[in-house]
């Protein structure tokens, strides 16, 4: 049976998950298992493996998915226990390392290393080009280990790098050495005077390791990626690096290797090399040059290329290598034996295929992916090809695929030789020789039992400084009966000799150099600088790459990458478009918006009947109801909000009973308008009608006004959907007594009551102004009480007002909401940028506005709050989130300032002080600055978060946290708890995409 477990938001790199898959596949009762991130490409791999499930297809690229075919459901527990143990072990190992600094975003990485000059990228190819472009925008060179990048993207980023004087190494660049620092799958090579520019990974490894074992060295080996010399790309990286290496005084001999280039690119590169001031050794794999040119030597094999480069450095010829083995047992040609070659390196496989094909006189043939040769029973396979590594570890890491191939080869009676490579170095198996030997011995015994002889021939690509130990690996293989050659060419030659064939490298004459016409460019200073100093690295992806570069003395920041924007390529491109938009500076536009927020001077001016300040309430013969959230029709409102509407109808006496009230509401006679469309906000249901008293707050800086009705207290109240006679009578008392009393008191203050100073006091006393307002309510009471005490009014009314204010801890919330609305409406008079200017919800949809899109709403399905419930209730009773009170988070308080109110953190489900601190710290990742008006003492006197940037929300997948009350989903019950809720990221995604399109972005 297929079982699926989705770990939402748990991102791990592909190598880690491949190794983990191997680890858990041995759990008893597991028939088949695969663990991968749920990217579109990986979902296809799951499908191909017969592991497609509904839960898998619903997962996002940021979700780790375990799909297992298990015999019994109970096996899943044992499997997941092994998964947890694996990650716990990995985490413990990471914790012990005094390794690279870690970052979770570009901003964090650059803050830790502002002078970084190299980005090493090893993430899924669908995202690699986008991150490479970001690195180039930050003036960094790029080493792109990632593959599956389109050639169009490769050309785009390489052209951009060239224009900026930078370089892109890759994509699919497996190997590099910069100032003796190994990058990616690289060996430990001594520094020296040979400079290498090569398209291939194992090709560079083979060259550098031969050079090292011959006693010379390589300080810089730059990989270009296999398509750099294609017609589409044009050799951009290779030509730029040739210019730089020619200028590098430490390079005495330059080596250039590549797959066969496009004719026009080959001519361009050859022309450039023909005027190079230094000796050049060149190898275009597959091409067989007939002669050398003086100072420009074209070679046929990697062995020849390496030995010639060393000869040029020393000024004397380096002798050919030999292989020590007993040739008396070799087959004769007439035995018609075949060679089966299984490589972990594509270049080495290609070279062997070339040599075998030539020696045996085989015709080139069409063959499936991964095969370099498949003719007359002779096979050469690159097991590192994508067809073999999709969802599986690379053969440099895992021997199992190669062992399976060897087993199949021995079952073929024609097989005379099994040829293979063992690649040492960083990124490779810690003991590949040792891992292969049991299979080799077993297969030798199997062949012997059938009176057959099968020769095993290997090349070890490595140096004596590699951590696996070159000499040790060679010795192990020889002891197991493997014939070991020191280079791949010699291994292929020995394999041919073993089946009765041979090839003898042709001696080439040296002719005068033919100098071609070529315009030489001055090398980029940035590139010369990169080759002259140890790189400062931001490592995006595989942690092992960071560990190695740091070991070699580099400054490194480990960017623990996750797919930005939920892995949505269109959104990532939109974010890049906005970041690089040239029409105006979007960051500067955002700073102007938040400067408006800081400069706002909100003042409480009055408390009056809503109809006197909100003209929309006087339309439709006064039968207008304002509601919270983006626009919604009555029929679509949740039952809780409909209940609030019933209470409003009864309050306004448009009906005298519930049945008639509902009939009226359903008739279409009443007009429904969002509070936000009337410069107003309303908590929970947000229901506001003509005769409800509202606070009037003016933003004196911009002159705009905002309104919010008064807080009714807690429990069964209108805003939570209750509409009983008790609720309606309270509303009428607020209309007739509380509102007029507060209006008179506020108007008696010269200029009104300044709100910012009151907020500053209360936040220092532990309020966050959404869930906890007790300090602010008491500060407000302190301002009002003396005035009300002296007012000429009936004593019983005076006493009821004073008692209500004293008893209602949340009373200030509604003043804060009107304040937030006044501040953000003033800020959104600026019409550019991505700062969020409103957040609200209507029980069905969550809506946001951003500065650059004015009044337009962007919505997504609303979530249900999570938190603590009053006795007798639980999450099954909760209404989906409602209310305009998220205007508090929009202005930077409420859940955004959770740390300010440790007294309520557990009440809203935050868990405690540490969780509150973590929440507020996380909110800083999606905001632009801090508000100096609202200082939080227990946050090291930092200001509240200021300016939610929709771009950051989308990029990082972090949505604002909102403190909220929880209403019962059935009207009439009222409040049943309190907690937190997050908005749907979909709303922010829509806003960002719409703004990008407004500025000219095209998908």
TrEMBL record:
List, for all copies, the residue spans of the domain called ATP-citrate synthase/succinyl-CoA ligase C-terminal.
Answer: 343-495
Give the highest taxon in the source lineage.
Answer: Bacteria
Q: Which residues form the CoA-binding domain?
A: 191-285
> What are the recorded GO MF terms, alphabetically?
succinate-CoA ligase (ADP-forming) activity; succinate-CoA ligase (GDP-forming) activity
What are the GO BP annotations of this UniProt entry? tricarboxylic acid cycle
Q: Which SUPFAM superfamilies match?
A: Succinyl-CoA synthetase domains
One GO cellular-component annotation of the UniProt record comes to: cytosol
NCBIfam families, A to Z: PRK06091.1 (NF004760)
What name appears for this protein in its UniProt entry?
Acyl-CoA synthetase FdrA
Question: What is the scientific name of the source organism?
Answer: Mogibacterium kristiansenii
Q: What is the lineage of its organism?
A: Bacteria, Bacillati, Bacillota, Clostridia, Peptostreptococcales
């Amino acid at each position: 049976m297929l079982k699926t477990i989705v770990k939402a938001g748990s991102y791990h790199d592909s190598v880690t998950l491949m190794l983990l898959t191997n680890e858990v596949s041995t759990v008893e009762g597991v028939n088949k298992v695969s663990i991968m991130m749920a990217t579109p490409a990986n979902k296809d791999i799951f499908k191909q493996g017969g592991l497609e499930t509904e839960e898998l297809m619903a997962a996002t690229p940021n979700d780790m998915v375990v799909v297992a075919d298990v015999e019994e459901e109970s096996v899943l527990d044992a499997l997941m226990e092994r998964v947890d143990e694996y990650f716990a072990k990995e985490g413990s190992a990471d914790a012990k390392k005094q390794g690279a600094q870690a970052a979770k975003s570009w901003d964090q990485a650059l803050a830790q290393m502002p002078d970084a000059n190299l980005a090493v990228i090893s993430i899924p190819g669908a995202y690699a080009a986008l991150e490479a472009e970001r690195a180039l925008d930050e003036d960094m060179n790029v080493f792109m280990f990632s593959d599956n990048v389109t050639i169009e993207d490769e050309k785009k980023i390489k052209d951009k790098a060239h224009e900026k004087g930078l370089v892109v190494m890759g994509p699919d660049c497996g190997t590099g050495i910069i100032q003796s620092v190994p990058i990616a799958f690289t060996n430990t090579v001594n520094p020296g005077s040979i400079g290498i520019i090569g398209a291939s990974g194992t090709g560079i490894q083979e060259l550098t390791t031969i050079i090292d074992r011959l006693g010379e060295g390589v300080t810089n080996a730059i990989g270009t990626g296999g398509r750099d010399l294609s017609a589409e790309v044009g050799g951009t990286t290779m030509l730029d690096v040739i210019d730089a290496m020619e200028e590098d005084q430490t390079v005495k001999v330059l080596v250039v290797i590549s797959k066969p280039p496009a004719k026009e690119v080959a001519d361009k590169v050859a022309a450039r090399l023909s005027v190079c001031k230094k000796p050049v050794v060149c190898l275009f794999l597959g091409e067989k040059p007939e002669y050398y040119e003086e100072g420009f030597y074209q070679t046929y094999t990697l062995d020849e290329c390496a030995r010639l480069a060393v000869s040029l450095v020393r000024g004397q010829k380096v002798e050919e290598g030999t292989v020590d083995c007993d040739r008396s047992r070799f087959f004769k040609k007439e035995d018609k034996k075949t060679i089966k070659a299984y490589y972990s390196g594509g270049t080495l496989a290609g070279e062997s295929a070339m040599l075998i094909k030539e020696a045996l006189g085989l015709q080139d043939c069409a063959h499936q992916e991964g095969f370099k040769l498949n003719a007359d029973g002779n096979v050469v396979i690159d097991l590192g090809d994508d067809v073999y590594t999709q969802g599986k570890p690379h053969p440099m890491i895992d021997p199992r695929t190669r062992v399976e191939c060897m087993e199949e080869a021995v079952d073929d009676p024609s097989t005379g030789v099994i040829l293979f490579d063992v690649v040492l170095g960083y990124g490779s198996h810690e003991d590949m020789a040792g891992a292969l030997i049991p299979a080799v011995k077993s297969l030798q015994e199997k062949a012997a039992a059938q009176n057959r002889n099968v020769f095993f021939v290997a090349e070890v690509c490595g140096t004596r400084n590699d951590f696996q130990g070159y000499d040790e690996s060679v010795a192990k293989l020889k002891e197991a009966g493997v014939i070991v050659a020191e280079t791949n060419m010699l291994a292929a030659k020995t394999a041919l000799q073993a089946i009765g064939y041979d090839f003898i490298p042709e001696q080439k004459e040296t002719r005068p150099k033919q100098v071609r016409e070529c315009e030489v460019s001055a090398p980029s200073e940035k590139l010369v600088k990169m080759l002259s100093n140890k790189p400062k690295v931001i490592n995006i992806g595989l942690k092992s790459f960071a560990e190695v570069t740091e070991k070699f003395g580099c400054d490194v920041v480990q960017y623990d990458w996750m797919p930005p924007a939920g892995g949505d390529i269109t959104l990532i491109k939109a974010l890049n478009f906005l970041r690089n938009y040239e029409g105006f500076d979007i960051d500067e536009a955002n700073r102007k918006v938040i400067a408006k927020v800081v400069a706002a001077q909100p003042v409480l001016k009055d408390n009056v009947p809503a109809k006197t300040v909100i003209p929309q309430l006087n339309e439709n013969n006064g039968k207008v109801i304002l509601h919270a959230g983006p626009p919604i029709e009555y029929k679509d409102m949740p039952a809780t909000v409909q209940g609030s509407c019933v209470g409003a109808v009864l309050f306004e006496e448009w009906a005298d009973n519930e049945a008639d009230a509902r009939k009226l509401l359903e008739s279409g006679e009443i007009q429904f308008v969002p509070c936000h469309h009337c410069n107003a906000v309303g908590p929970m249901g947000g229901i506001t009608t003509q005769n409800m008293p509202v606070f009037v707050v003016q933003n004196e800086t911009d002159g705009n006004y905002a309104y919010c009705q008064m807080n009714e207290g807690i429990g069964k109240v209108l805003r939570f959907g209750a509409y009983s006679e008790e609720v309606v009578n309270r509303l009428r008392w607020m209309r007739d007594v509380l509102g007029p009393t507060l209006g008179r008191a506020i108007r008696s203050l010269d200029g009104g009551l300044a709100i910012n100073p009151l907020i500053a006091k209360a936040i220092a006393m532990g309020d966050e102004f959404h869930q906890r307002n007790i300090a602010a309510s008491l500060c407000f009471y302190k301002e009002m009480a003396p005035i009300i005490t002296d007012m000429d009014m009936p004593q019983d009314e005076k006493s009821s007002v004073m008692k209500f204010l004293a008893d209602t801890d949340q009373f200030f919330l509604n003043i804060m909401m009107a304040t937030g609305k006044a501040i953000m409406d003033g800020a959104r008079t600026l019409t550019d940028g991505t700062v969020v200017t409103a957040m609200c919800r209507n029980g069905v949809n969550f809506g946001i506005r951003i500065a650059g899109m004015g009044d337009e709403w962007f919505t997504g399905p609303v979530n249900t709050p999570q938190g603590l419930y009053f006795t007798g209730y639980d999450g099954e009773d909760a209404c989906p989130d409602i209310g305009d009170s998220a205007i508090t988070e929009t202005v930077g308080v409420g859940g955004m300032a959770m740390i300010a109110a440790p007294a309520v953190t557990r009440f809203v489900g935050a868990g405690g002080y540490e969780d509150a601190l973590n929440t507020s710290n996380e909110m800083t990742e999606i905001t632009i600055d801090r508000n100096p008006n609202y200082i939080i003492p227990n946050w090291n006197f930092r200001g509240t978060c200021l300016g939610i940037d929709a771009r950051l929300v989308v990029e990082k997948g972090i949505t604002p946290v909102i403190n909220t009350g929880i209403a019962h989903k059935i009207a009439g019950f009222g409040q049943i708890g309190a907690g937190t809720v997050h908005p749907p990221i979909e709303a922010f995604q829509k806003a960002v995409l719409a703004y990008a399109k407004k500025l000219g972005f095209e998908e």
